[in-house]
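Incident log, support desk, overnight shift.

02:14 A customer reports that sequence design results differ from what the structure should imply. Their input is reproduced verbatim below. On-call engineer (initials T.W.) acknowledged and began investigating.
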């Protein structure tokens, strides 16, 4: 009598490196799980990453990594990390994506934006507006069947506050980090002194901007879902008129999905 046996698929370990405008973030992942994102003031070494793998009791082989940077595409510190990986992917305009359509010039499309879109494509099949509130605010539209239709960019809260100070003679620099002391202002429409007027003006302009995008797209796509990520996401979501999904690690989720796609393609070839 013959016996059949099944083979358990090999588990892959992924290193996800996201170099943003102001922060370097690293996360570990497997095919089934995304681990907490860590911020690094200095680039980590391969030994540090291997120690992180051991802390989470993750296999060190096969090990795959992806690097996403809004600035430089290559950096000397990456060489040691490449040395411990079976495959290392630098996300750029030539990287194959698990999307059916991209209606945007990929040569000038931010890698963090496309990673967020891919992350949402794994979470829903509904039309989706993907909003990343960081140094800049990006708006990207994903339609069913993984069709990315492009998007827009506007200044984030700190850029708006900085511009008001830099391009006027007497307006003070009001830091967004003072948000806790200004939260009670939200319930009044107008400021009663200059710092209040600046903070309320910036906060309300961003909220009205986001609500306007959502309202306009909902007319065309009634089942539109709104996904918000980025360092300032939690600051704004509570003030929006429309329901949203907050996914703070959307870029990391998308990087994992793009890397999985590269690994699968290499196995198929």
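02:41 Re-run completed on a clean worker. Output:
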């Amino acid at each position: 009598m013959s016996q059949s046996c099944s083979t358990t698929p090999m588990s892959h370990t992924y290193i996800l490196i996201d170099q943003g405008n102001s922060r370097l973030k690293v996360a570990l992942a497997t095919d089934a799980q995304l681990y907490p994102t860590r911020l690094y003031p200095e680039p980590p070494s391969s030994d540090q990453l291997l120690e992180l793998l051991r802390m989470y009791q993750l296999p060190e082989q096969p090990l795959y990594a992806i690097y996403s940077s809004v600035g430089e595409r290559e950096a000397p510190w990456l060489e040691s990390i490449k040395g411990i990986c079976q495959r290392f992917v630098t996300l750029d305009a030539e990287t194959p994506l698990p999307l059916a359509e991209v209606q945007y010039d990929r040569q000038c499309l931010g890698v963090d934006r496309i990673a967020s879109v891919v992350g949402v494509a794994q979470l829903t099949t509904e039309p989706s507006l993907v909003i990343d509130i960081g140094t800049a605010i990006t708006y990207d539209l994903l339609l069913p069947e993984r069709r990315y239709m492009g998007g827009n960019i506007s200044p984030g809260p700190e850029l708006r506050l900085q511009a008001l100070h830099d391009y006027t003679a007497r307006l003070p620099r009001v830091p967004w980090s003072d948000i806790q002391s200004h939260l009670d202002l939200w319930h009044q429409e107008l400021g009663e002194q200059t710092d209040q007027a600046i903070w309320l003006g910036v906060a309300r302009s961003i909220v009205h901007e986001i609500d306007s995008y959502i309202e306009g797209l909902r007319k065309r796509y009634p089942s539109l879902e709104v996904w918000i990520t980025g360092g300032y996401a939690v600051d704004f979501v509570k003030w929006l008129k429309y329901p949203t999904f907050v996914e703070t690690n959307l870029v990391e989720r998308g990087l994992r999905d793009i890397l999985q796609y590269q690994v699968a393609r290499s196995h198929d070839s």
